[in-house]
Amino acid sequence: MRRTQEERRQATTVALVVAGRRLFGRPGYAGVSSATIAAAARVTTGAMYHHFEDKADLFRAVFEAIEADLAVAVRLAADGPGDPLLRLEKGALAFLEAARKPPVRRIVLIDGPSVLGWKRWREIDERHHLRPLKATLIAAMRAGLMERRDPDAIARLLMGALTEAALDGGKEIAQSAVWLIRRLRR
What values do phi and psi take at 117, rounded to 5? Predict the structure, then answer.
């Protein structure tokens, strides 16, 4: 059965993102060429540039895919009824565990800010992580589990702490990030 043009387009895009994810995760963005990515995806560089403006545009798509995966992992770990601060703790631990994987760490935390630029990196990160974090903090405040404060400010502080903990990758700093979350409780 012949595939439609749209199916072929989607298959090529997926192949490029999968190859980019694998290759950007090893030597990093600067260590891989567009030709190498295209070859790994079994397409021509022309096909790559037909689907993505440039290597940075492909990196953005890879970054978005990983951020979406991280958000799902956090949501699954934190999902369910009950204490919002315990759910927040579970989600933070899931994020830290996922971020310890070298490809995720390299793409999201190391190359992401430099390739995408600080503003765009932060916008994408906030879309996937800040909004649900704020919602959880608001739920904890409404439940009387923590003092009412600006949820945006607290969420940004926690995101910074979790990002630093993920960059460090050590257990001690991860435990300190969880300690910080526990200190929110009344």
Answer: 90, 145
